[in-house]
Amino acid sequence: MASLATPAAPCLLRPTRCGPAGMPTTSDVALETVMTAGPWDQPALLPVRSRRERGADPATGRVSGATDTIDALGVADAAIPPAARIVRRAARRSYDVADLAMGAADVLRSNDIGTMVTAAPALYPHMWSWDAAFISIGLAHLGVERAGQEIRTLLAAQWADGMIPHIVYGDRGGYFPGPGRWGTAELSASAPQAPLTSGICQPPVHAIAVGRILDVARRGTDADRAAGEQLVRDSWAALYRWHAWLAQYRDPDGTGLIAVVHGWESGMDNSPRWDGPYSAVIPGPDLPSYVRLDRELVRDGAERPTDLEYDRYLWLIEEMRRASYDPVKVYETCSFLVADVFVSAIFAVASDVLADLGDEFGAPAEHVADLRRWAARSRAAVAASRSPETGLARDYDRRAGAWIDVETLAGFAPLICGGLDADAERALIETLHGPHWAGHPDLVAKVPPTVSPDSVGFKSREYWRGPQWPVVSWLFGWAHARHGHTAQAEALRAETLSLVGDGAFSEYYEPVTGEALGSRRQSWTAAVILDWCTAR
């Protein structure tokens, strides 16, 4: 197993205890009391003073037995009344930046199996496409070469036609659907024989990741800079082919809105955005039987999609199998075909980033021009999708021929890619950070939930139907900074660090109580937290 480099001194920031909105706290004694409140309330990350007293490894920040307590938090939480959890999380509004940085680094090291960092140690034991992109950003702070390896591992699984698959399977099992259910290597001439992959894609955040790695590399040593620049040279052509695949096969009519053929491709698997399109997916009587593994690993079924949803997910795979994963046939025949405004916004801004890198590194001028054209087209389409009533961007159900007027976090897609006039952009930012969304008075941290608590469809514990996702906060924070909204970017950073301050690095969080949900020690959560802790 390959190990990650020990963080350089700049990664371990001077211990800074912060409270709400990033303001320093004044009582170390109070923090110590909160962080060691009782046997069920023992976090894996301890204050600096306690960590030294307990003999932590200075290279990893890990205290003996700490990793077990992180995974035990979920079991402990289930035994605590909701009211007590609210009090508990309110007390934990203090956090230590140095602790978070070292804890995040420890998660990435622990989940590293050599050529890839698994998405999570139990629930997601392989490589996921957009997870890997965010993970590589965190890895850059531990070693630029290792970050580059993550991107190269993913690109080694790119299909011959240009698609980057949403799962690259490692040697481990323990996940359903596995490669046998997809059958891509047997059914598609474009799919690689090794490594085995799924047959769909995920949001194209990869150019953003490569650009961010280069930023980190250029603040490091000469060797870091060289490694970051070599990564751009090595990956640019593959990323261009990936963007070209999306433009050709997921927007064949040139509308600017990139379509998805499965909710999983959006990254927001069971978002309310998909309820209407999924209702038209009718599983056939010949749907092969299956056994879900996620329910065995996440004990609270309310945190995961339902069995009916899973039937529909798997029936879409069957449809794609019967089309032999031919992208033209899949687009024409798949029961689910939605122009995804959030994926389109990511595609637009990632195309801009990739074009900028292409200009700097001497990529073919015609390819750079393609990227600029695709970016402009998608940016305009995202802006034009906005509802005249709410101002939020909307998906378009291509099968039903109708806009999807469901209000979710994806409605703020124009803030990712730009394209609005100054007044409209300002209004949308105010809505995102206002009292119906991130600034809702019931939230423990001012972090955008996936569905507003004021919505009738808000489900505080159910995956993409209400919880807060640190990785999505990072993406909005990055976009805010890119478009000059530095105050809002810093606010998201401070509030998300507060949310994740318990050290569980969970997949997502209950927004009213701040309870850690989903899988613990999630690599992309750790990665974006490490980036926010170490690169200012």
From TrEMBL:
Gene3D superfamilies listed in its UniProt record: 1.50.10.10
Alphabetical keyword list: Glycosidase, Hydrolase
Full protein name: Mannosylglycerate hydrolase MGH1-like glycoside hydrolase domain-containing protein
GO molecular function, one term: Glc3Man9GlcNAc2 oligosaccharide glucosidase activity
InterPro entries (UniProt xref): 6-hairpin_glycosidase_sf, 6hp_glycosidase-like_sf, Glycoside_hydrolase_63, MGH1-like_GH
One example of a Gene Ontology biological process annotation: oligosaccharide metabolic process
Family: Belongs to the glycosyl hydrolase 63 family.
Lineage, highest ranks first: Bacteria, Bacillati, Actinomycetota, Actinomycetes, Cryptosporangiales
Mannosylglycerate hydrolase MGH1-like glycoside hydrolase domain segment(s): 124-525
